[in-house]
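Final paragraph of the annual report: two paired records, presented back to back.
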Amino acid sequence: IPELVQPVASETNFDIIIYVGVNGGSCLPTIDELVQLKNIAPTIFLCPEASDTQWWHEHIKKYYKEKCFDLIVNLDGNSDWQCSEHGMTRLPPIDTTPWKIHKSWEERKYLCGFWGNRGNGIRNEILNILGGTIETHSNIPATPENEEGDNLRSYDLYIDFLRNCKSVLSESARADGKIISQIASELTEPTLINIINNGLEGGRTHVKVRVVEIGLAGATLIEQASSETKKWFIPGEDYLAYTTVDEIRQHIHWVESHPDEAQKMANNLHDKVLRDHSPKVFWRDVFNELFSRV
């Protein structure tokens, strides 16, 4: 960073500097270096999960105290984060270009899908209970470019999978300091239901990037009732909300038995994502807020 700051300061005129933050590693800029960058141009900090207190609470508290940024933007959809009254909360801006080609309802191969790390905890438990009801990406054959494992699967494959789903299950419980796999052995049905309803460690949830992507894919979203998703979209109109595994089953059956209504719900989510959460709308709002402050 010191090698970066001086050339930036002496050779280039910037209108805005955007810092996409991480909270660990050997290359993190110091507080002084961030302040130096702010003196060059107005600065924005894009934080992927500011409401995750385990990872971000102390960082953001320090950033605000030392006035490192003109604006902090939280991208996880949960407005309950350190110093949130001085920043913005939004959903992540996803490039819509790769998602523009849709499959018809009849062309979609999977009644309900799930993509993500199922791990050894909550998600895995839910998927185990549901058995073969849900298609997971681990069942999709690897292609030559990603044959080494799930972590190397291409974004195109991910997009194609979601496009082939009529509905997609989302689980947005936040761990906040407790490793999910550590409590897997303690799970009982009441415990599982409580976690579905409230998340972990104080009931914190967020909005996964996948929620926006499911909307762009034109699939029906099946989401936790407690998720912050309800603050951005309308349950029962834009997506199906669940509080128990039985309700997930009921929702999947409804998607199968009411295709017209399910498509309408999927279209509602799709249209609202494009209207309210496109990159164009995101950056318009962020820049307007930034320039109202500087």
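The closing record of the year follows.
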Amino acid sequence: TPPPMHNEGNYTASICEIVQWLGGKAEELGVNVFTGFPAESLLLEDDKVVGVRTTATGLNRDGEPGPGYEPPTDITARVTALADGCRGSLSQAWLADQDAKRENPPIYALGVKEIWETKKPLTEVIHTMGWPLPRDAFGGSFVYPLEDNLVALGLVVGLDYRQTTLDVHVLTQRLKQHPILKDLLDGGELVEWGAKTIPEGGYYALPDRFSGHGVVLLGDGLGLVDVPSLKGIHYAMQSGIEAAKTIADALQKDVVSAKGLAGYDTKLRGSYVVKDMEKTRNMRLAFKSGFYRGS
């Protein structure tokens, strides 16, 4: 097993449950949490971000207001922290508006995940590379035990594959026909499933700016993922911590300009997050021509 895949002493947890728990802790501290309101666009005053506009809800199929129509709402703030995920629309819009530069263009992957109730317990963590992917695609699978009868499995495939007919969902079904998984899942029941894109560009795909006038970017929106270990949640959390420190200091000094928030870039680039990514900066790029050439 490659060293980055070693997880001795770590815990496997549900990110949904962690976020729900953290949300409760935030509300206890007086934070207002609004769920179910997607943000549609940024609110700008010249080059300054002053908030976001939510998406109108209750529209019919023609885009006209229906019985449950709710108009967009403008939510303003002195500093807006964008944590809208992989290729988030608001983060991308701001980076494009600022003409942000990158040494390399971003690379993305698609991960398909399933949760199974099994008749047999899984006592180990499984990672694979290669099959059932074609030779010119990069990716691999994971199988994690969650509880005695609960297993998470999934397949992650780089979206720079060359076969136009490649379907990650179909490959996931093929993966489950492997003798190890087939035996594990025999008699079990699929209880949850989903998919998510992942930024895999790494260090060279980071933008040259992480913040601006009234705004900071966090987590997957920046591309903060360690590809060798398939981990990015801890990077997202650390970026939030560094952003909070910077924002608190900027508000105390009453300076939320690009210069006032530039300390966030310095803190994040000096943290273990970007240093980790620099160490593994060439790992994903080595597989641009496929798994076998990269290995």
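The chain has a mean pLDDT of 91. This concludes the annual technical report; the extension proposal builds directly on these records.
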